[in-house]
Amino acid sequence: MGKTETLEDFYRQKMNWLPDNLKQDIGHFNVFRVEDCVGQGKTPVAYARRDYYKIALMQGPYAYHYADKSLEVTGSTLIFFNPNVPYTFEPLTEDPKGLFCIFKEAFFTEKIRGGIKDLPMFIAGNKPSYVLNKTQDKFVAQIFEKMIDEIKGDYVFKYDLIRNYIMEMIHYALKMQPTETLYQHIDANARITAVFTELLERQFPIESPNQRFTLRSARDFADQLAVHVNHLNRAIRLTTGKTTTEHIFERLTSEAKTLLKHTNWNISEIGYSLGFEEPAHFNHFFKKQTSMTPSAYRN
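Now predict its structure.
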């Protein structure tokens, strides 16, 4: 998985330009047609996290890969992407259609109760995808078209109006049932395991020596999930056959290998970024997991 895609990355890759107000406008919003950004001659959509939110109406055959789940649809899909979950999608036609908007969390700061991240479709582990019938597709497309018209205008309160359009679309989706075929969590144990996995993956990739891996124990994750640590351990073992600690250590080892092979950071910096206060502790951990020292693996 590549590095987190920023708004600047998006505009450079898809539009080959940057809005003049991008740096000043921390609550940046914009809306686009899919065909202007995706398809032949365009940069493929990378599997990565973004540092912004996206709501997309995808019309036609697409394959989606969202966290560890996949969905292939032939009709219209309304899907909500949040910055914590890596995703990609690929058109299964040479003529992709659809509309989407992108925005930063600050676009809604103090405008809605609790903030955008607390809405059900934007919560990690919840269901972000809604397959639409023709009537629903027409309704959602009309909302996007209103946003496109509004963003081009000079109405002084246009962003307030656009926020209302987004909330109308969100509440329209909340009245529908998300697409169950995207989700394989048939019981509570599977669901808690999926949310644990997302929390674990959310801490990666490590992109600078100053970044820290902070959720390092089963108890850390249990606290985040508001469950007893024994309940978390039991659910994960029943679902995967491995312990919570084994999952954490495997992911730590994988990231350590990546950093050793693909960065020029010194070993103490890598160990620190992975949560080891002392280089000796990192060396001991890595050797126990791989039977090699970090320096031997790097060389």
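The chain has ten helices and eight strands.
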